[in-house]
Design brief:
Layout lengths: L5 H29 L5 H12 L3 E2 H8 L3 H13 L3 E5 L7 E5 L1 H22 L4 H25 L4 H10 L5
Antiparallel strand pairs: 1-3, 2-3
Helix pairs in contact: 1-5, 6-7
Length: 171
Amino acid sequence: MKDFDDSERQAFGWVLRDVFRLFSRAWNRRLKDVRGDITPPQSQILGALKVSDGLTQTELADEAEMEKALLGRHLDRMEQMGLIERRPDPTDRRVRRVYYSANAEALEPEMWRAAFDMFEVALGDLTVRERRTLLSLLGRLKQNLLDAEMHSGDDNDSVVSSRGAARAKSP
């Protein structure tokens, strides 16, 4: 952003913040339309399990970027809802693994439809070419941030990198 002046840098920050906030609100509304009791954090957990089923709670907390205690409360609720299953690890009795359930699988097409509807609203009047350019630019932003994290020595680098590659697979 060497050629950006301070007001443009501020505008960039505010626009990103607003887009994130508006996407979050839109996703929350659409989840309520799919099934009123699924929350955005729960959809994030389902997405992580769809990509990497059978994670431990610690691994899932890292993937979903949630504190373990908060994740545990979500998992308790999701297990009651029939969206996940917790099973003992076959090699370590102390560990329980979390699995994406058949009920969650059945909801997936409806959740994707809700996500696609939200994307269509957001992309609105952009042409196909503009949409592809936007996707390419967002991919470059993502890569810049991943590269910066790799050089920072952050312990979460591998989690972010692997999650980033898999994110396209789930809503």
